[in-house]
Design a protein that fits this description.
Largest sheet: none
Number of helices: 10
CATH topology of the largest domain: Tetracycline Repressor, domain 2
CATH class of the largest domain: Mainly Alpha
Shape: elongated
Number of domains: 2
Order of helices and strands: HHHHHHHHHH
């Protein structure tokens, strides 16, 4: 097993080979699709580089050209997922100025569930090693996009407060995703409903009852 700092140095250089042509970009995309399919089917721990290459229809050497280990390809996959989720938040931010807080919360919960359902490996990666998290810069962008949604509804909240509320909201959604992963289909709907109530109550208290914050 690679030691932590060794893995970290590997990931700092990833991917090993950056595709310069459309064909190379397509190859990397297929490798990531293969990784997602394998991880969704067997989980992160049981997924192997050999299984990923086989699912992607690529020689194992081709996989290692771009990703030296499972942590590296997982980091790339989670980064792509983060970008996909950011795109959904950006669309919501554009619409939020025409929506009430209740509708913003409803749309946020709905788009999160839709994202989870359309990215089968996402739930399986919740327990992947911390080092494979998407970059800090991307996580900050997610907070910024979500904060923009809150500011569109309640401009008086201010930027710093909205970013703070966005950070808490994303942690609440992370908790929802964890329960969603563990629950049966019937129970999932119930948990989603509970989180919608909890998130709306929290944001109502912080944005509508105390819009200025008083703690900027």
């Amino acid at each position: 097993m690679l030691e932590y700092m060794s893995v970290r140095s590997y990931l700092a250089e990833q991917p090993r080979r950056i595709p310069q042509q459309v064909r190379g970009e397509r190859r990397v995309a297929r490798l990531l699709e293969g990784a997602a399919e394998v991880i969704a089917a067997v989980g992160y721990e049981s997924a192997t580089m050999s299984a990923i290459a086989e699912r992607a229809g690529a020689p194992i050497g081709s996989l290692y050209q771009f990703f030296p280990n499972k942590q590296a390809i997982t980091l790339a996959l989670r980064t792509e997922y983060g970008k996909d989720y950011e795109a959904k938040l950006t669309a919501l931010e554009t619409e939020a100025k025409h929506l009430s807080l209740r509708r913003v919360v409803g749309r946020l919960i709905a788009l999160t569930v839709d994202f989870v359902e359309s990215h089968p490996a996402f739930l399986a990666l919740l327990d992947a090693p911390l080092i494979t998290r998407s970059p800090l810069s991307l996580r900050r962008q997610l907070r910024e996009r979500l904060a923009g949604c809150f500011l569109a509804v309640h401009a008086r909240a201010g930027k710093s407060k909205s970013v703070r509320l966005a950070a808490v909201t994303l942690q609440m959604l992370k908790g929802m995703n964890q329960l969603y992963a563990e629950a049966s289909p019937r129970e999932r709907r119930k948990y989603v409903r509970e989180y919608k109530i909890a998130l709306f109550s929290y944001l109502t208290a912080r944005l509508e009852r105390d819009p200025g914050g008083g703690d900027e």
